[in-house]
Design brief:
It is a single chain. Among the domains are: 141 residues, Immunoglobulin-like, CATH 2.60.40.740; 43 residues, no CATH class. Helices cover 27% and strands 28% of the residues. The radius of gyration is 38 Å and the shape is elongated. The protein has a six-stranded antiparallel β-sheet, with helices on one face. It has a five-stranded antiparallel β-sheet with strand order 13-14-20-16-17. The chain is built from 16 helices and 24 strands. The protein is of the alpha+beta class and 577 residues long.
């Protein structure tokens, strides 16, 4: 099982794609989960649902959304050597934050309190260009290489950080691609105060790739025999702040004249009083970039409008002759293999029979390029569309384009996400190159226990790249219409019930009672004056008229108002029905 949380996209052109770190640890944006189940076929989907709910609660994420059959697929051959009942799912829009990193750190023996994990400063990690936390579980039944049978847990955090010089805008001679000087305290804001007490060993490795070693040799006119010699880290174009404990030079590299160099620093001897703070200072500007993959893969959309479109996958050649490991020769008619794995949501209805291929700008027949293909068309609200292809290209290929047409479906209003106007994501496609392997062999210099990092570098894994996540705009309804209906309905009901309650609670003789109470409060002097004036004018005293006529008029007026409101309410309800 493998689970990854990724923020940002790996830049294969600048950060490399032909080395074990980028090929194994560069993941697509969002959440990626795949697992192989050792259960009967009819129990695989139920086990997958249980797994997604468990991981969702453990890592405080929305992984439980992958339980739906519309969100995962069952690849046939795209995840070799993993065989069996495999399930694969992605959530491209899943946000990654500290609430996902904290459970991941809790799985470490000392969390982030001691050892190398103490460098994991949250602000430094989350303002980086790219970061990906990966969790890999392997069931080790036979116990190879001296390992006891059980479950092997592997945790990897891949981060592309911003050096201090780039944060402050300081570079050599205004060059953007110049390698900056750095230190652990400058990029992480922390130092290492020794190893975790539960760890068997704790080491920091610094690798100089082949191209960088060749450039340093060229600048300093050093021979190949000085690569791993004493003083190499201080006499060349850079200087290390800490003396390395061991220096490894890559072996079995006959196809190249230069080999990569690996420095090992043990943090066992450091403490709080003398923390470990590795730093590298360049003595002169060095412009260098990592080796890219044999073919740079990118994906984009074609067409316009909210009805139809097309998906295009572009493969552009890199420096293939240097990356081919001496196995690809166009003169012998040899072809190298490219595997494509793509999952499309069900509401993007792909027409797989419209597949077209262009090699070096020229259209090619599907049978001339595709060795085998497996297509699983999508089913509405049941399963996504899956396409797996094995392509064979000549060694001198410069570019290749694959296009597929599609229609955009319609969703029920309850199926739209809260930010539907932003668009819908199509997960990244996986492009692998089985003929090209990323493995580095560094001798152990007679050491009995070889480092797990060195053993990981020796694994022969094919080069793997991920394309961009596509954003597809779909036709969205007017989400404000329910709000308008609710508003006007509530207004009508408020007027109706307000008038009804006003009529029901009003007292009809309230005005007469108020007049009588007001008259009763008249002073005795006013009554005497009125009697005296009546006697002087020799007229009887006038009595106030009874408001019976006015009361009857008011009552009829209220009844008419109630009748009109009731008629209006009945008409309104009949209109909406």
């Amino acid at each position: 099982m493998e689970l990854s949380f990724t923020q940002g996209r790996w830049n294969y052109e600048k950060w490399g794609g032909f080395d074990p770190i980028s090929s194994n640890n560069a993941k697509p944006p969002g959440v990626e989960l795949w697992a192989v189940f050792d259960v009967p076929q009819d129990q695989v989907d139920a086990s997958w649902r249980n797994l997604t709910h468990t991981l969702s609660g453990l890592f405080c994420a929305s992984i439980n959304f992958l339980e739906s059959s519309t969100m995962y697929s069952a690849p046939q051959w795209s995840f070799r050597p993993a065989t069996g009942n495999i399930r694969y799912g992605m959530l491209p829009r899943e946000a990654v934050c500290t609430e996902n990193l904290t459970p991941w750190l809790k799985l470490l023996p000392c969390r982030d309190k001691a050892g190398i994990s103490a460098l994991m400063d949250r602000p430094s990690i989350y303002r980086s260009f790219y970061h990906s936390q990966r969790l890999h579980l392997i069931s080790n039944k036979s116990g190879p290489e001296g390992m006891n049978p059980g479950i092997v847990l592997e945790q990897v955090l891949t981060v592309v950080l911003q050096p201090n010089s780039q944060r402050t805008g300081m570079t050599f001679s205004g060059e953007k691609n110049v390698q900056p000087s750095w230190s652990l305290s400058s990029i992480f804001g922390r130092k290492v105060s020794g190893k975790c007490v539960l760890a068997k060993s704790s080491n920091v490795y610094l690798q100089l790739e082949r191209a960088l070693v060749a450039k340093l040799k060229k600048n300093k006119n050093k021979g190949a025999d000085n690569i791993a010699s004493e003083g190499f880290w201080s006499e060349t174009g850079f200087e290390l702040s800490v003396r390395p404990d061991r220096v490894f030079e890559e072996e079995n590299n006959s196809h190249r004249k230069d080999s990569s160099v690996l420095f090992e620093f043990s943090v066992d001897k450091y403490s709080d009083s003398q923390p470990f703070d590795l730093g590298l200072t360049w003595k002169f500007p060095v412009i260098w970039s990592c080796k890219p993959a044999p073919l740079h893969a990118s994906r984009f959309l074609m067409g316009s409008g909210n009805e139809r479109g097309a998906i295009a996958i572009l493969l552009k050649s890199a420096d293939l002759h240097d990356a081919s490991l001496g196995t690809c020769s166009s003169s012998d008619g040899y072809k190298f293999r490219v595997d494509v794995f793509q999952v499309v949501p069900w509401y993007v209805k792909v027409y797989y029979h419209t597949l077209q291929l262009y090699v070096n700008g020229q259209p090619k027949a599907v049978g001339d390029v595709i060795e085998k293909i497996h297509v699983s068309p999508s089913k509405d609200k049941i399963s996504p569309g899956v396409m797996e292809m094995v392509l064979q290209f000549p060694c001198d290929v410069k570019s290749a384009v694959l296009t597929l047409e599609f229609d955009k479906g319609f969703l029920h209003i309850d199926e739209y996400p809260p930010d539907a106007n932003q668009g819908f994501d199509i997960p990244s496609a996986a492009i692998s190159f089985p003929n090209f392997y990323t493995s580095l062999f560094f001798p152990g210099n007679g050491s009995v226990d070889k480092s797990p990092v060195l053993m990981k570098f020796q694994e022969k894994n094919p080069v793997l790249s991920y394309t961009e996540v596509l954003l597809v705009p779909l036709t969205t309804p007017d989400f404000s219409m329910p709000y308008n209906v609710i508003t006007i309905t509530c207004t009508v009901f408020a007027l109706y019930f307000g008038s009804l309650l006003n009529v029901l609670r009003r007292r009809v003789n309230e005005e007469e009672r108020l007049l009588k109470s007001k008259a009763g409060k008249t002073t005795r002097l006013s009554r005497l004056l009125s009697k005296l004036s009546a006697k002087l004018r020799r007229k009887p005293q006038e009595t106030p008229e009874t408001p019976s006529n006015s009361s009857s008029f008011i009552s009829s007026k209220l009844l008419l108002k109630i009748f009109l409101v009731a008629v209006l309410a009945v008409a309104w309800q009949y209109y909406f029905e």
